[in-house]
Design brief:
It comes from Oikopleura dioica (Tunicate). Pfam families: MAPKK1_Int. This is Oidioi.mRNA.OKI2018_I69.PAR.g11889.t1.cds. It is a single chain. The chain is α+β, with helices and mostly antiparallel strands and 80 residues long. It has a single domain, classed as Beta-Lactamase (2-Layer Sandwich), CATH 3.30.450. The chain is 46% helix and 26% strand. It has a 3-stranded antiparallel sheet with strand order 1-2-3, with helices on both faces.
C-alpha cells in the first residue's frame, strides 16, 4: 500500500475531510506530500531532516504552488 492510498483510507475512515499533508518516515528517508488539488507536491528528505522546517519552507512557496494550481486547472479544464 502506498502513502496516498493510506491517506485516502484514513480520510474516509475518520470522516474529517481531506488531508492536506501526508508525512511518511522510513529508516533513511521521509516524504512530505502536500496536496493542492489537482497537484501533489512531494518533498523527499533524509530521515533526520526537520519535518517542521520542510513544512515552513513549503508555506513560503505557496505563491508558486498557487500559480501551478491555476495553470493545471486551466490546462486540465478543472473548476474549483
Amino acid at each position: 500500500m502506498n502513502c496516498s492510498s493510506l491517506s485516502l483510507g484514513i480520510d474516509k475512515q475518520i470522516n474529517q475531510g481531506e488531508n492536506l499533508y501526508n508525512i511518511a518516515f522510513g529508516t533513511k528517508y521521509q516524504t512530505v506530500q502536500i496536496r493542492k488539488h489537482p497537484l501533489t507536491i512531494i518533498f523527499l528528505a533524509t530521515s533526520s531532516a526537520s519535518t517542521g522546517l520542510i513544512l515552513k519552507e513549503s508555506k513560503e512557496l505557496d505563491t508558486y504552488f498557487s500559480q501551478l494550481q491555476t495553470n493545471a486547472r486551466t490546462h486540465l479544464q478543472i473548476q474549483n
